[in-house]
C-alpha cells in the first residue's frame, strides 16, 4: 500500500513523530486510566457507578482526548484504529508499529497505576461472559461499526474537532452499554492488554488482540461498500484503490 495518501496537504505543518507518539501514549493512558478506573471505582463502591456510568466514562474520555490531541496525532488511541487507517490508505505503514507501541505503553502505564491504587480489584480486565466464538464475533462487529463511524467523521488519519469527538465517543459509549456485560466491549487491543498484564488475567487475551483488528479492517471494507471511495479520501483527494 502506498504511503502517499497520508502526506500532509500543502500548508499543513509536519508534526514530528516524537510528538505524535507522545500524544498517542498520553491519550491511551487517559483512556485506560479513566475508563478502567471507572470499573475499579464501581467495584470499590459496590456498584454505585453502574454499567451506564462506566460506559459513559469510556465514551467521554475518548471524546475529550480527541479534542485534546486529535490535531497532533489523530487521536487513534487504539492499535486496531491505526491498522484500520492504514488499510484505508490514510496512514503510512511505517508508522503503524510506533503508534501501536505508544498505545500499548500508555495502556500498561495506566493499568499498573490502577494496580498501585487499587490492587484488590480486577483493574477492568476484559473477559467474555459468553462462549468464545460468539464473543469473538461480537468484538469484531463492535469494532466494525466503530471503524465505520471513525472513517466517516475523520479527515485523513486524524480524528479531530467536535463532530469526530462526539460521534466516536457516542458510538463507544453506546456499544459499551449493551455489549459491556457480554464481552467488556473492548474494541481496542491496548485497552485489554494493559489490565490483563497488570492483573495477571491473560485468559482469552488473544480474542481481544485479534478481533478488534479484524473488525477494523472489515470496517474499511464496509465503508468502501457504502460510501465508495469517500472512506479512503484524503485531503489531497486521493481515494481508494
What does this structure look like?
The chain has 241 residues and is mainly alpha-helical. The chain has a single domain (16-232), classed as Glycerol uptake facilitator protein. The protein is 66% helix and 0% strand. It contains eight helices and no strands. The chain has helices at residues 17-44, 50-69, 79-87, 96-117, 132-153, 161-183, 189-199, 205-227. It is globular.
Please name the defining characteristics of this protein.
Glycerol uptake facilitator protein, 66% helix, disordered N terminus, mainly alpha, 241 residues
Explain the layout of strands and helices:
Elements: H1 17-44, H2 50-69, H3 79-87, H4 96-117, H5 132-153, H6 161-183, H7 189-199, H8 205-227
Helix pairs in contact: 1-2, 1-4, 1-7, 2-6, 3-4, 3-5, 3-8, 4-7, 5-6, 5-8, 7-8
**Could you spell the SSE succession in H and E letters?**
HHHHHHHH
Instruction: Say which CATH homologous superfamily is assigned.
Output: Glycerol uptake facilitator protein
| Poorly predicted segments | 1-6, 235-241
Q: Helical residue percent?
A: 55-70%
The overall pLDDT average reads 90
DSSP helical segment count: 8
CATH architecture descriptor name: Up-down Bundle
CATH topology: Glycerol uptake facilitator protein
By secondary-structure content and strand pairing, the structural class works out as mainly alpha
Strand fraction equals under 5%
CATH domain class name: Mainly Alpha
**Alpha-carbon Rg, integer:** 17 Å
Q: Roughly how many Å apart are the termini?
A: 9 Å
Largest sheet: none
Shape: globular
Count of individual domains: 1
Amino acid at each position: 500500500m502506498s504511503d502517499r495518501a497520508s502526506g500532509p496537504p500543502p500548508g499543513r505543518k509536519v508534526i514530528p513523530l516524537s510528538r505524535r507518539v507522545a500524544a498517542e501514549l498520553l491519550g491511551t493512558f487517559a483512556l485506560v486510566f479513566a475508563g478502567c478506573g471507572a470499573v475499579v471505582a464501581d467495584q470499590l463502591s459496590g456498584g454505585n457507578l453502574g454499567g451506564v456510568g462506566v460506559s459513559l466514562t469510556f465514551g467521554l474520555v475518548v471524546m475529550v482526548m480527541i479534542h485534546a490531541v486529535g490535531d497532533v496525532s489523530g487521536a487513534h488511541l487504539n492499535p486496531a484504529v491505526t491498522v484500520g487507517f492504514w488499510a484505508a490508505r490514510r496512514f503510512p505503514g511505517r508508522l503503524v508499529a510506533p503508534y501501536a507501541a505508544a498505545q500499548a505503553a500508555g495502556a500498561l502505564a495506566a493499568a499498573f497505576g490502577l494496580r498501585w491504587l487499587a490492587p484488590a480489584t480486577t483493574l477492568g480486565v476484559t473477559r467474555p461472559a459468553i462462549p468464545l466464538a460468539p464473543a469473538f464475533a461480537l468484538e469484531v462487529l463492535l469494532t466494525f461499526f466503530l471503524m465505520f463511524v471513525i472513517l466517516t467523521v475523520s479527515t485523513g488519519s486524524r480524528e479531530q474537532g467536535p463532530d469526530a469527538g462526539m460521534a466516536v465517543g457516542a458510538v463507544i459509549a453506546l456499544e459499551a452499554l449493551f455489549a459491556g456485560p457480554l464481552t467488556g466491549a473492548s474494541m481496542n487491543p491496548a485497552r485489554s492488554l494493559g489490565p490483563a498484564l497488570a492483573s495477571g488475567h491473560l485468559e482469552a487475551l488473544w480474542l481481544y488482540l485479534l478481533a478488534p483488528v479484524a473488525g477494523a479492517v472489515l470496517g474499511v471494507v464496509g465503508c468502501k461498500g457504502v460510501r465508495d471511495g469517500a472512506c479512503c479520501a484524503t485531503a489531497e483527494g486521493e481515494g481508494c484503490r
